[in-house]
Write a structure and sequence with these properties.
With 309 residues, this protein is an alpha+beta fold. It has a domain of 152 residues: 4-Layer Sandwich (Glutamine Phosphoribosylpyrophosphate, subunit 1, domain 1), CATH 3.60.20. 27% of the residues lie in helices and 32% in strands. The strands form three sheets. A seven-stranded antiparallel beta sheet has the order 7-2-8-1-14-13-15. It has a five-stranded antiparallel beta sheet with strand order 9-10-11-12-16. Strands 4-5-3-6 form a four-stranded antiparallel beta sheet, with helices on one face. The protein is globular, with a radius of gyration of 18 Å. The N and C termini lie far apart (37 Å).
Length: 309
């Protein structure tokens, strides 16, 4: 039932504002949580980490512990941490800029081991922001509308199998691969077998959500030499179940649909943007001009590559 969508712009622009409008149009598909994977300017000289700290009252102490574990993993802060301004909230959403030489998996595991810390993303350009509530609620707290970038993903969730909380919201980061994110509509029925195989290769997971599994599986395939398209096509035979997902990397956005094609996906393209979503009404929140839409069927794989300049 969940709603997913994505935007790829030909030039950097207001992807935050446009994704909020899209997810608002899809709110009837779920308001348990809403999230955004936003790709801003790529910078080789830093990584952005997005975290959630469960107890705002002890945020200062937690940040000191976070900095200590970062240093043990070979990194350091490049500036003071920042966090959302919802002072009456129990939790806090923290943004860090850190040195790019840090051991991402080591520090991710260490931060989670502190207790009360979730690691939502690492990236040279990627920032994942997700929270409970609908798109307007999440946008208001986290300033999503202000974000300018090249492309991004959105998700509105109806929880059917896991808890209604931030940790199980989408998008998911492909831990420990920077700048890889996913939104997914469907269910993977060979989840546990696939997860065990990846864990035997040394991967750790931050949730028990099958969407996170897909992102790690594909990132691992690309690590071992597959192209973006080859990794997407691999998922069609490696995964069982019904699924439509959008996987994003710095170079663009990819779509894959299972061989039954139950979960819908539609796209439209102009000289300014390509927009894809579960329903056409979400696309029309961004592309107001006359457009031709395209639907995708059984076992389809599509890549919308970013155009620089």
């Amino acid at each position: 039932m969940c709603g997913i969508g994505g935007i790829k712009l030909t030039e950097p622009g207001p992807i935050g504002e446009e994704l909020v409008r899209m997810m608002t149009a899809l709110r009837h598909r779920g308001t348990d949580s809403t999230g955004f994977a936003l790709y801003g300017p790529w910078r080789e000289d830093r990584l952005i980490a997005r975290l959630r700290v469960a107890e705002r009252e002890i945020l200062d102490a937690t940040l000191k512990a976070i900095e200590g574990e970062l240093q043990k993993a070979g990194g350091r802060f490049l500036g003071p941490p920042t966090w959302d301004s919802a002072e009456r909230a129990q939790d806090a959403f923290v943004r860090l800029e850190v040195t790019p030489n840090v051991d991402v998996e080591r520090v991710t595991a260490a931060w989670i081991a502190l207790g009360g810390v979730e690691v939502h993303s690492f990236g040279h350009s990627l920032e994942i922001i997700k929270d409970v509530g609908d798109a307007l609620t999440v946008a208001e707290r986290h300033g999503i509308r202000r974000f300018v970038g090249t492309h991004g993903l959105g998700h509105c969730r109806l929880a059917t199998e896991t808890d209604v909380d931030v940790a199980h919201g989408h998008p998911f980061w492909a831990r420990p691969f920077p700048d890889v994110s996913i939104v997914h509509n469907g269910q993977i029925t060979n989840y546990y077998k696939s997860r065990r195989l990846l864990e035997q290769s040394g991967y750790q997971f931050s949730s028990d959500n099958d969407s996170e599994l897909i992102s790690v599986l594909l990132a691992d395939q690309m690590k071992h030499g597959k192209t973006f398209e080859e990794a997407l096509r691999y998922s069609l035979t490696a995964l069982d179940g019904v699924f439509t997902y959008l996987l994003s990397i710095p170079e663009g956005i990819g779509l894959a649909k299972d061989r039954l094609a139950i979960k819908p996906m539609i796209s439209a393209e102009t000289n300014r943007a390509v927009v894809m979503a579960t329903e056409e009404q979400a696309i029309r929140q961004v592309l107001r001009e006359e457009i031709n839409t395209k639907s995708y069927g059984q076992g389809e794989v599509v890549i919308w590559a970013r155009q620089d300049g």
